[in-house]
Design brief:
elongated, alpha/beta, 2 domains, binds calcium ion, binds uridine-diphosphate-N-acetylglucosamine, 20-stranded parallel sheet, seven-stranded mixed sheet, 10 helices, Spore Coat Polysaccharide Biosynthesis Protein SpsA, Chain A
Length: about 450
């Protein structure tokens, strides 16, 4: 770790008009987390001492997201978009108060690996005054070009619109990510002018200005996908794809089996234990953890849920927020749990809705069991004791308690608490008429013959 304090400035003032969205671009999600959230997490991996986010006027939702991070970012407003240097200078107060390194990130570049940022910082540790993250672009059109001397030091960054023919032929491009170790970053940034093709204040001009003061500028290269910028929905989907590919690979490297990894969708915070097996077509929304040895059968959807060790869930199971599946428990097809705990070894194998309740260890929930938890105004709880047996097609009208070891006869609508080890049955007595069907058939056949 570098001994110097670090200030990270995240630029997020761009409107993102190409997204064609009511939502500011940087709040669009990848792996269940906003792009801004991803960039801030990358900054946090460097243990930043201070974090500033620069937003545009009226971007209250972006401000709220920045403030919601841990630790909260300081938010600055860039009143008019006059270029990347002007954007960084919107955080002037933070820059003035800071003694140490400064790292500039873009909030629409969400796939930066922490190792890449560490490598960039390492160049500052090794004495560079500026370190710029560059990449060999498949198609360099639109990017600033990194111009280097014979020893590989960066001499200037030339924006495409200002570049000569020869400079445009350079394929080494500027990602936009820059780190500074200068005595007076503010002094350099405020010297940047706007005498260029776009009439903007280019952050990239900091390289030539700092060099004039005797600083060295270095390039650290990374893969193009690490610095993929998102400007449109199709680029969002590409970024999502890269995120997913990385997340699956990381999970498999930690001991998860995926039969068809390309069909498993993970969130930024999905936690999967050792020897978890995941069949095809499973979606993990945010906040899901799965303990060791659990098995997820095909076609499930999970969000803010926990699956215990050795449990078996699916196929076609839905776990909604607050679902907590105990160790060795089974959840089967077309079973939905919400805000409900299924105890150790308990089973709910078919066609059930279990919302707002708890089910004791070893209990058996029959096919078609419904927790009737909502009266149109309030939600109520259903509590089922250990080892209870709920027969098929039972409606349990909450609030309700079923004691340990109790039996519920199938087809019952249970509205009152059931004592431990009792049988509760709610169904009209069966009426049987011997020989009725045979007589009925004979009568009807005779009637038909007459027509
Ligand atoms: C910038 C770089 C270019 C680099 C490219 C990588 C400059 C002058 N050029 O160009 O060398 O190859 O990024 O994508 O820096 N922003 C603000 N306020 C502004 C302007 C920009 O917040 O006034 C933010 C944008 O929201 C965006 C980022 O800064 O996240 C980059 O801005 P953009 O306009 O896309 O820069 P480019 O012209 O593409
Ligand atoms: Ca851009």
């Amino acid at each position: 770790m570098s001994p110097r304090p670090l200030l990270v400035v995240v630029l997020a003032a761009g409107q993102g008009t190409r997204m064609k969205s009511a939502l500011p671009k940087v709040l669009h999600k990848i792996g269940g987390r906003s792009m801004l959230g991803h960039v801030i997490a990358a900054a946090q991996s460097l243990e930043a001492d201070a974090l500033s986010v620069v937003v545009g006027p009226g971007m209250d939702k972006v401000r709220a997201e920045a403030v919601a991070q841990e630790p909260a970012a300081r938010v600055f407003v860039q009143e008019k978009q006059q270029g990347t240097a002007d954007a960084v200078l919107a955080a002037r107060e933070a820059l003035a108060a800071h003694k140490g390194d400064v790292l500039v990130l873009y909030a629409d570049t969400p796939l930066l690996p922490p190792e890449t940022l560490r490598a960039l910082r390492a160049r500052l540790d090794a004495g560079a005054g500026i370190a710029v993250l560059g990449f060999e672009a498949k198609d360099p059109a639109g990017y600033g070009r990194l111009l280097t001397d014979g020893d590989g030091w960066l001499t200037a960054i030339r924006e495409e619109k200002d570049a000569s023919e020869a400079e445009r032929a350079v394929r080494l491009c500027n990602s936009g990510v820059m780190a500074f170790r200068l005595d007076d970053v503010l002094g350099v940034l405020t010297r940047i002018g706007n005498n260029n093709a776009k009439g903007e204040y280019y952050l990239t001009d900091a390289v030539e200005i700092a060099r004039a003061f005797g600083a060295k500028a270095a390039v650290v290269t990374c893969a193009e996908e690490d610095v993929l910028g998102v400007n449109s929905r199709d680029q969002l989907a590409v970024a999502e794809g890269i995120f997913q590919k990385r997340a699956r690979l990381a999970a498999m490297r930690e001991g998860v089996t995926m039969i068809a990894p390309e069909t498993v969708w993970l969130s930024y915070d999905t936690k999967l234990g050792r020897d978890v097996v995941i069949q095809p077509n499973v979606f993990f929304g945010p906040g899901v953890s799965v303990d060791d040895d659990a098995e997820i059968l095909a076609n499930c959807h999970f969000e803010r849920a926990h699956i215990g060790k050795g449990a078996r869930v699916g196929p076609f199971s839905r776990l909604r927020p607050g679902a907590d599946i105990g160790p060795d428990a089974h959840v089967g097809n077309f079973v939905e749990l919400k805000n409900a705990q299924l105890g150790k070894g308990a089973k709910a194998n078919h066609l059930s809705y279990l919302g707002d309740g708890s089910i004791g260890a070893g209990a058996n929930i029959g096919a078609g069991t419904i927790f009737c938890n909502y009266d149109g105004f309030f939600k109520h709880r259903t509590e089922i004791g250990e080892g209870a047996f709920v027969g098929s097609n039972t409606s349990l009208v909450a609030p309700l308690k079923v004691g340990a070891g109790a039996y519920i006869g199938s087809g019952s609508v249970i509205t009152k608490d059931v004592a431990a080890d009792a049988l509760a049955l709610e169904r009209s007595p069966q009426d049987e008429r011997p020989g009725w069907a045979a007589k009925f058939r004979a009568m009807m056949a005779k009637r038909k013959a007459k027509t």
